[in-house]
Amino acid sequence: MRNAPSARHGEAFLPNLSRIAGRLALAALILILCAIAVFPFYWMFVTSIRPSGQLFAYPPEILPSANSVFSTYVTIFQDTALGTWLWNSIRVALGTAILASFIGAMMAYSLSRFRFQGRGFTEYLLLATQMFPGILLAMPMYVLFSKIGLLNSLPGLTVAYLALLVPVATSLLKTFFDGIPVALEEASLIDGASRIGTFFRITLPLSLPGLASTFLFCFIIAWDEYLFAQMFVRQPGNWTVSVGLASFSGEYVTPWDQVMTAATIVTLPAAIVFLFLQRYLVHGLTAGGVKG
Amino acid sequence: MALTQTSARVAGVRTVHYADSQDRWLPAVMVLPFLLAITALVIIPLLWGIRISFTNSRIIGRAFTEAFTLANYQSILTDPDTWHSLYVTAVFSLGTVIGSIALGLVTALVLTRAFPGRGIVRTLIILPWAVPHVVAALIWQWMYNPNYGVVNYAIGWIPFVTSQPNWLSDPNLALPAIIILNIWKTYPFATLVLLAGLQSIPDELYEASEIDGAGPVRRFLDITLPGLKHVLAIVVLLLTIWSFGNFVFIFLMTQGGPAGATNTLVVKVYFEAFRFFRAGPAFAMGSLLLLVAVLLTLAYAFIVRRGNDA
């Protein structure tokens, strides 16, 4: 972590006005930028606690209603299948994250430590798979899955997600393994430990932060994913949260207080994970292209 | 530390480290699950899709005749709809790239300044990136609501604006409306990457140019922008790739409408296959998209590598 960077980058924004005016302008700019980022979230939450009768008022109340109701957060589980969708999503995301992290860890370790033919191609494939529009994989996979009867099942969806997440997990973990000095492992090998023993005693403990981050990131991607989920799973009983949430918006009159309540509940885990992982994600996603 | 070189050729694997019995099979075993997963779930489906694109398959899931034909490619390339979709995709991607980088750069420049509460602001800025895509689409759908939406309420404050546009049903406004949503969703990423880029520009450069008497604007143009060149290239490519492949926003907000105004290539492919059951043309267009995606990825890999070598 570097210490505070110089303030000079931002100077272009502030021509030589007097100091106070400059400060005020900066403060205003900061407030505007915060509003852009936060207002939609604020609006989601305020809508979720607004009594149904006050949703369709014009002009809209910008502040939370005086008679805000939090009961929606309880009744949503009785009125909709949100509980089922959450449970489905948790199962799929957990299964995917465990499998993808495991497969990815082995491959990442191999890429990081062994030399073999086809490494360059493998690394390109890793990158490309993460870059392809999901639909390119989803359509032919749909045809194949329909032939072998993997459609309309949560295990089927979990397997489909591996296509998206194994490359992600492998790339992220490779960055981690690359950061662990080989010398530590070599020392252990010289001491007579086996390669597997070394992996479990030295490499794995050192890469636990990376494994945890990768696991969480995979979980959130699966939690967030919509295209595969709506294509592969048709029965409402097997929907994940993304598909369930999206199903609200097609209704004749959208119950926005309910929608926003469910949306807030679904957003919380994703937001928490992201705030924890943000620094490391930027590094991982840009494939080390940014020297931070 | 001297290494003994063992050439254990197992499935083309050569390892360089201390020889012991595990060398022969361990690497192969560690690579195998990955190879199985990627072959079964990525390579075979992609090849299968390309194969379908050369047949006259009409319905997804039904057996197709084996006859090789170029008819699908002919039909999509001569269909004006395809070119319209390409145009919509280009506008969507370009609009997102420009907006996201502009907003991201302003935000990043502000975040390089020291001010009280900077850490909190940095955290708040990341929130849009953290929200699930479906949730983002729902929030904005509600904000864009023509009668009760907060967006129309807000533009009512602008002098001389009296209309209440129906953002998502107006052919002229639907695409810009979704571009704004996409900018909002992606600009935190642009901000963080550009911020990392800004922080890697050496302070000495600024000090030197200050001694030379350059003003802030000069400094921004002569030092900040060139220093960000590599990072900007990365952000431009990633945002292009993500926008080009974005399905969920357009599908949920407008279904490609009104009157095809938001019908990007990805959404068009989906509807070809699942609404009109024209698998052949859908897969043909998918194969062309695959080609574009491969080229974009190669460009990205090239830029990242060049930056790392620099």
Automatic annotation (TrEMBL), chain B:
The compartments listed are:
Cell membrane
Query: Looking at the record's lineage, which domain of life comes first?
Result: Bacteria
Q: Where are the transmembrane segments?
A: 25-47, 88-111, 123-143, 173-196, 231-253, 282-304
Q: Which UniProt keywords apply?
A: Cell membrane, Membrane, Sugar transport, Transmembrane, Transmembrane helix, Transport
CDD domains reported for this sequence: TM_PBP2
Q: Which Gene3D superfamilies match?
A: MetI-like
Q: Which SUPFAM superfamilies match?
A: MetI-like
Q: Does the keyword Magnesium apply?
A: no
Domain ABC transmembrane type-1 stretches: 86-300
Entry membrane topology? Multi-pass membrane protein
Family, according to the entry, reads as follows: Belongs to the binding-protein-dependent transport system permease family.
PANTHER family the UniProt entry points to = BLR7065 PROTEIN (PTHR43005), SPERMIDINE_PUTRESCINE TRANSPORT SYSTEM PERMEASE PROTEIN (PTHR43005:SF1)
Protein name per its UniProtKB record: Multiple sugar transport system permease protein
Origin species, per record, is: Kaistia defluvii
